[in-house]
């Protein structure tokens, strides 16, 4: 009879250990599932931020290109005006030189 009691005790001990191992396994699987979900959420959030930043950078690039083009146009206008003023000044100086030479 003692053998039966000893075997029962071993069975109970092994059953308890198996239950604890199963519970630990289930907890680990739950943690892994939560970590996977957190990672996926993080990736989604990061993807959205990257898309937003790319859009903002594209908008900034467009605005910058427009402003650079506007500055080029303004500088071309200024260059043209300056050249006209230089030509007019050169013509006046030439006329004055001619007048001095005749006098």
TrEMBL record:
Entry annotated with the keyword Coiled coil: yes
Domain of life: Eukaryota
Gene3D superfamilies per UniProt: 1.20.58.130
UniProt keyword Coiled coil, yes or no: yes
Residue ranges of coiled coil: 11-88
UniProt keyword list: Coiled coil
The protein, known as: Uncharacterized protein
């Amino acid at each position: 009879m003692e053998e039966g009691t000893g075997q029962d005790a071993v069975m109970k001990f092994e059953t308890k250990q198996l239950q604890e191992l199963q519970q630990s396994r289930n907890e680990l699987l739950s943690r892994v599932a939560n970590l996977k979900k957190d990672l996926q959420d993080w990736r989604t959030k990061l993807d959205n931020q990257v898309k937003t930043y790319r859009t903002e950078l594209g908008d900034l690039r467009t605005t910058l290109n427009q402003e650079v083009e506007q500055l080029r146009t303004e500088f071309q206008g200024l260059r043209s005006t300056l050249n006209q003023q230089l030509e007019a000044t050169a013509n006046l100086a030439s006329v004055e030189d001619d007048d001095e030479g005749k006098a």
